[in-house]
Write a structure and sequence with these properties.
This protein is an all-alpha fold and about 140 residues long. It has eight helices and no strands. It has one domain: Orthogonal Bundle (N-utilizing Substance Protein B Homolog, Chain A). The longest helix is centred in the first third of the chain and has 19 residues. It is globular and about 40 Å long.
């Protein structure tokens, strides 16, 4: 597993917990041994990026996740999508297909059997329309 893949998983852990507890992921990161995570700066990059752009990211999820309300979507799926959408739209050095593939792999290992296909479909639509999305 690559360093970035591990960082995505660690960031997902923080974002998922923050979502469930209705707190800020950055606060969890700071209180949970940020010093030990300093070797993984991309974790904080993801957490900060998702937090900074959360309203736009969630707007895109609501728009392109046809048939799913944010409240009905499993929290792990919601946060996998948040990470991938952040990377697709705001991380210029991340290949779009890599961001999508990483999200699908996280879904395969951490969520339901249907989640990976669903996430792939949502991200595929966002990638296709990326240039027309106002950020």
């Amino acid at each position: 597993m690559s360093a970035r893949s591990k960082a995505r998983k660690r960031a997902l852990d923080f974002l998922y917990e923050a979502d469930i507890k209705n707190v800020l992921a950055a606060d969890l990161f700071q209180t949970r041994g940020a010093t030990e995570l300093s070797q993984e700066p991309y974790v904080l990059t993801i957490i900060t990026g998702v937090t900074d752009h959360l309203s736009k990211i969630d707007e895109l999820i609501i728009t392109y996740a046809q048939g799913w309300d944010m409240d009905r979507m499993p929290p792990v799926d919601r946060n996998i999508l948040r990470i991938a959408i952040y990377e697709i739209l705001w991380e210029a050095d991340i290949d779009l297909q890599v961001a999508c593939d990483e999200a699908v792999e996280l879904a395969k290992s951490l969520s339901t059997d249907e989640s990976s296909g669903y996430i792939n479909g949502v991200l595929g639509r966002i990638i296709k329309l990326k240039d027309s999305i106002a950020i």
